[in-house]
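Severity: low
Component: inverse-folding endpoint
Summary: output formatting inconsistent between runs
Steps to reproduce: submit the following structure tokens with default settings.
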């Protein structure tokens, strides 16, 4: 994680691992003081309760919303995605989550303002632990707000990452489906059900645009996913070339 952060000009600012780590990391980002975690926790839980309709549908079925909020009020209770989303909206900040996951090293959680009051950076790594993230040039003076971190996070919203993963999965399935089709089928029949010829090239182009993510943030796909993507793209191009040749041959025969 330290090397990953250094690649984008950042460093870990460790907080205590006492169950309050998410709130400590947010407190450091918001106030420059991790010891204000109780204040941050209380405000976030109040926000959850006040916006019940927005958060309750995403709670786990085995725990009632009221019970969840009651438990989250307790010191040492681990926070997670619900609390990060609540924090972004409550404090009107963007939250950038740095993760040690090859397929999603950065996740951006937005608030409902075009210009947030600030951008909070936290790291999620190890055994379900959160730390604060500071700029490499941040002297980290006591009780001082973090130095602003300039990092292009375009394309790293949760929905963007989900689209990329889904499309890589689709291309992999498309490539495998091509190889399993009976050879007696005419080339123009060798398509995945519900996907017409023209859509394959269009979708491949769309993925190419989606993958033009921030180079500063590093690669978001694992080496295995990159190999799978290249293989699927080559298969798509080969298939398109064969279709063009077949159409040309049919046209010549008719003449």
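Observed output (run 2 of 3):
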């Amino acid at each position: 994680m330290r090397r990953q952060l250094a690649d984008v000009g950042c460093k870990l600012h460790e907080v205590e691992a006492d169950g309050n780590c998410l709130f400590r990391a947010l407190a450091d980002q918001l106030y420059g003081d991790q010891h204000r975690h109780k204040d941050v926790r209380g405000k976030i839980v109040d926000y959850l309760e006040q916006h019940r309709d927005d958060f309750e549908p995403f709670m786990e079925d085995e725990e009632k919303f009221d019970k969840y909020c009651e438990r989250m009020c307790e010191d040492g209770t681990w926070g997670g995605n619900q609390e990060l989303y609540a924090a972004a909206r409550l404090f009107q900040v963007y939250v950038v989550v740095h993760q040690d996951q090859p397929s999603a090293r950065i996740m951006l959680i937005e608030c409902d303002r075009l210009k947030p009051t600030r951008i909070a950076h936290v790291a999620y790594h190890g055994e379900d632990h959160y730390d604060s993230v500071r700029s490499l040039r941040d002297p980290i003076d006591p009780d001082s707000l973090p130095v602003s971190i300039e990092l292009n996070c375009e394309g790293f919203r949760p929905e963007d990452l989900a689209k990329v993963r889904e499309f890589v999965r689709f291309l992999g399935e498309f490539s495998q489906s091509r190889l399993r089709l009976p050879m007696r089928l005419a080339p123009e029949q060798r398509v995945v059900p519900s996907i017409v010829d023209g859509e394959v090239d269009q979708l491949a182009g769309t993925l190419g645009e989606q993958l033009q993510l921030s180079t500063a943030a590093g690669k978001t796909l694992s080496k295995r996913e990159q190999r799978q993507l290249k293989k699927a793209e080559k298969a798509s191009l080969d298939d398109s070339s064969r279709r063009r040749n077949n159409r040309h041959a049919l046209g010549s025969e008719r003449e």
